[in-house]
């Protein structure tokens, strides 16, 4: 896609115009971490921006804290936890040409991050998304291993920019035009795997996705779920297969789904979450009619691009 036009504002500081960047923070509980996130966002300089906080029915006073301590933020307080639908509500309310999506436990250590994001999008009209370098607070410099699902080795490439087919919803910037065209996150998933579905939608639209090594701090690191008996396995098993069957060509969807169901069954037996596995499998069977009704496989060109990204040769990129 070489003919894209940059749809963002021209950089004016006139308050009657749209901001250059909109920051959308999705929040549920964790009021103290949300406070740290917003302090780092409001410390940004060099670019016009606005801030939208979507609170997913927190019970810890998060909404009140935002009202009292960050009056410049636009608060959207939901009456129930809508999970990823909350992100879409924030995206639709955003007016910036670039939208930075954050979890409520992400701190921006560099006060000019928003400026560089805006400039990076302005230089590349085909750029649809930049997924950021999510660092653990213990080191402040190494990408958190639990978040790394990119096609290249983490240690060799965590400080380099490259094409990717993965987005991390905890800290990712979008061109707002690309978000609209891709249809935002697929809300039926509720939680888990939604970033993969959106990345496929962006690739289908001809947009470029890049890993952008600007560090942000993850204030509440999580470990890998593979070896944990966590209820979230049920949603992850259901959703990853759901996305594959919904968005990939049929042969590729089956090649993805069947081996993974077998692998997850072995892990469930070994690590004691057979019940979660069975709930995930049952959930997948329950949504199959919806999967086939809403099936929108990516086209041959997008599939070829995805395979090319996944098959990048590290040694060539490091030459």
What's this, in brief?
The chain is of the alpha/beta class and 319 residues long. The protein has helices at residues 31-41, 62-69, 85-93, 113-123, 154-157, 176-182, 194-204, 232-247, 250-271, 274-293, 300-310, 314-317, and strands spanning 21-27, 49-55, 74-77, 98-103, 106-107, 127-136, 162-163, 171-175, 208-218.
Strand count, sense and barrel status of the largest sheet are: 9 strands, mixed
What is the helix fraction of residues, given as a range?
A: 40-55%
Structural class: alpha/beta
The chain-level mean pLDDT equals 92
Count of extended strands: 9
CATH architecture of the largest domain: Alpha-Beta Complex
CATH class of the largest domain: Alpha Beta
Here the CATH topology of the largest domain equals Spore Coat Polysaccharide Biosynthesis Protein SpsA, Chain A
Identify the quaternary structure here. single chain
Radius of gyration, CA atoms, in whole angstroms: 19 Å
């Amino acid at each position: 896609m070489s003919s894209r036009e940059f749809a963002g504002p021209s950089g004016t500081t006139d308050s009657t115009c749209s901001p250059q960047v909109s920051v959308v923070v999705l929040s549920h509980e964790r009021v103290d971490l949300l406070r740290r996130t917003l302090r780092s966002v409001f410390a940004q300089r060099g670019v016009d921006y606005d801030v939208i906080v979507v609170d997913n029915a927190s019970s810890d006073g998060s909404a009140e804290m935002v009202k009292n301590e960050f009056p410049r933020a636009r608060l959207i307080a939901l009456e129930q936890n809508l999970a990823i639908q909350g992100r879409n509500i924030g995206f639709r309310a955003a007016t910036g040409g670039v939208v930075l999506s954050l979890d409520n436990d992400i701190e921006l250590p560099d006060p000019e991050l928003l400026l560089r994001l805006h400039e990076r999008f302005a230089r590349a009209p085909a750029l649809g998304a930049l997924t950021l370098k999510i660092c653990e607070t213990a080191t402040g410099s190494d990408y958190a291993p639990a978040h790394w699902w990119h096609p290249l080795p983490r240690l060799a490439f965590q400080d380099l920019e490259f094409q990717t087919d993965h987005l991390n919803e905890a800290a990712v910037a979008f061109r707002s035009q690309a978000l609209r065209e891709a249809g935002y996150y697929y809300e039926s998933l509720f939680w888990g795997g939604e970033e993969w579905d959106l990345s496929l939608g962006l690739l289908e639209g001809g947009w470029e996705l890049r890993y952008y090594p600007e560090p942000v701090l993850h204030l509440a690191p999580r470990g890998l779920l593979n070896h944990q008996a966590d209820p979230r396995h049920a949603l992850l098993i259901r959703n990853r297969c759901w996305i594959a069957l919904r968005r990939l060509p049929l042969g590729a969807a089956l090649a993805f789904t069947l081996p993974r169901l077998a692998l997850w069954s072995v892990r469930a037996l070994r690590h004691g979450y057979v019940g979660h596995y069975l709930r995930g499998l049952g959930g997948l069977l329950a949504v199959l009619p919806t999967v086939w009704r809403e099936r929108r496989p990516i086209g041959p060109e997008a599939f070829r691009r995805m395979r090319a990204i996944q098959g990048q040769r590290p040694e060539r990129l490091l030459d």
